[in-house]
């Protein structure tokens, strides 16, 4: 058994997951933390990670390092996704992480991100289930779409649609105007449609969605305070419910959106874009609902990278 710590440094949040891995499965989940750090703020326009954004991540990982040390992990790895991939200074940032925190950085390609996301989302499903499944991961700078069966990813794509990226492009008033929402939806629709062939769209029979947008919407729908992962995981979120929540959230100014029961205040600035993108995903694949999953790239990285890191 190997105790693994995974730090997921995304465009919008920096997360920690510590688990015991044995024989290719999660034996026990020990710790999971999320802090919104907005590393990707401004990257879409400038092409660079901002020093303030990087410092927020450094400060967050400094706190995480104490928890990692307390748990006496045997392997530690950081997975870096869209914001770092896209930034001209992304490699410098990754090198600084390794120098400061003695943690192995992996700047994931879109293919690697898709594989680990699908592995995490399907890790508890029957590996023999042949139902074609879509796993969607709406991040800050990109949205990953993966179609597979059992626990094996097949077709996949990483698109340039994300909650931070599209918010910065289209939402400039508070609350957003109908015109801004229409422009955001049209942008997301164009990006997703260009990335997904017709044959793939029609092949899917079930959808699983991971990350902050669907988990937040499941928590809002159930008015969870405090957040309860057990009630969020497996929740079936209908397209109709997403439409209703979009109408509610988009009508509120940011200060009131921060107070919506079930929504973490730090996600209030980007949740509107997230709902719009999720709805476009559902429409593209002709899905009436999606299963919300707490199991995502953190779990996939623990399974797929943890033993590799311990052997290095």
Folded structure, characterized:
The chain is of the alpha/beta class. It folds into two domains: 2-111 and 297-311, ATPase, nucleotide binding domain (Nucleotidyltransferase, domain 5); 125-293, Exopolyphosphatase. Domain 2 (Nucleotidyltransferase, domain 5, 2-Layer Sandwich), CATH 3.30.420. Helix content is 46%, strand content 24%. It has helices at residues 43-46, 51-70, 82-86, 90-101, 110-121, 163-170, 178-195, 198-201, 212-221, 229-232, 239-251, 254-257, 271-284, 297-304, 306-311, and strands at residues 2-9, 13-22, 25-36, 75-80, 104-107, 133-138, 143-149, 152-159, 206-210, 236-238, 289-293. It has a six-stranded mixed beta sheet with strand order 8-7-6-9-11-10, with helices on both faces. A hairpin with a 4-residue loop joins strand 6 and strand 7 (143-149). Helix 5 crosses helix 14, helix 6 (163-170) crosses helix 7 and helix 6 (163-170) crosses helix 13. It is globular, with a radius of gyration of 18 Å.
State Rg: 18 Å
- Global structural class: alpha/beta
**Share of helical residues:** 40-55%
Uncertain residue ranges: none
Strand order of the largest sheet: 8-7-6-9-11-10
Tell me the domain tally.
2
In short:
The protein has 312 residues and is of the alpha/beta class. The protein has 15 helices and eleven strands.
Comma- or semicolon-separated keywords:
single chain, alpha/beta, Nucleotidyltransferase, domain 5, 2 domains, five-stranded mixed sheet, 15 helices, globular
Produce the secondary structure layout:
Elements: E1 2-9, E2 13-22, E3 25-36, H1 43-46, H2 51-70, E4 75-80, H3 82-86, H4 90-101, E5 104-107, H5 110-121, E6 133-138, E7 143-149, E8 152-159, H6 163-170, H7 178-195, H8 198-201, E9 206-210, H9 212-221, H10 229-232, E10 236-238, H11 239-251, H12 254-257, H13 271-284, E11 289-293, H14 297-304, H15 306-311
Parallel strand pairs: 1-4, 4-5, 6-9, 9-11
Antiparallel strand pairs: 1-2, 2-3, 6-7, 7-8, 10-11
Helix pairs in contact: 5-14, 6-7, 6-13, 7-13, 9-13, 11-13
């Amino acid at each position: 058994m190997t105790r693994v710590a995974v730090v997921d440094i995304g465009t919008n949040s920096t997360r920690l997951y510590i688990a015991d891995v044995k024989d290719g499965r999660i034996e026990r989940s020990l710790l999971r933390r999320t802090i919104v750090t907005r590393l990707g703020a401004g990257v879409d326009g400038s092409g660079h990670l901002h020093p303030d954004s990087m410092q927020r991540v450094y400060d967050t990982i400094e706190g995480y390092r104490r928890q990692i040390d307390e748990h006496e992990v045997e392997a530690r790895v950081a997975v870096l996704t869209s914001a770092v991939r896209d930034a001209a200074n992304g490699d410098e940032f990754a090198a600084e992480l390794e120098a400061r925190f003695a943690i192995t950085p992996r700047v994931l390609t879109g293919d690697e991100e898709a594989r680990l996301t699908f592995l995490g989302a399907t890790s508890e499903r029957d590996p023999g289930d042949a139902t074609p499944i879509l796993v969607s991961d709406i991040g800050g700078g990109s949205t990953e779409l993966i179609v597979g069966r059992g626990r094996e990813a097949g077709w996949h794509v990483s698109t340039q649609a994300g909650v931070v990226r599209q918010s910065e492009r289209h939402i400039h008033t508070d609350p957003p105007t109908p015109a801004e929402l229409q422009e955001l939806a049209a942008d997301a629709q164009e990006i997703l449609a260009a990335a997904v062939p017709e044959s793939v769209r029609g092949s899917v029979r079930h959808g699983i969605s991971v990350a902050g947008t669907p988990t937040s919407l499941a928590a809002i729908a159930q008015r969870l305070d405090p957040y309860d992962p057990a009630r969020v995981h497996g929740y079936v979120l209908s397209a109709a419910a997403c439409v209703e929540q979009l109408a509610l959230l988009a009508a509120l100014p940011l200060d009131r959106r921060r107070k919506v029961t079930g929504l973490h205040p730090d996600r209030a600035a980007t949740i509107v874009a997230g709902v719009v993108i999720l709805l476009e995903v559902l429409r593209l694949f002709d899905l009436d609902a999606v299963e919300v999953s707490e199991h995502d790239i953190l779990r996939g990285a623990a399974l797929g990278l943890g033993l590799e890191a311990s052997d290095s």
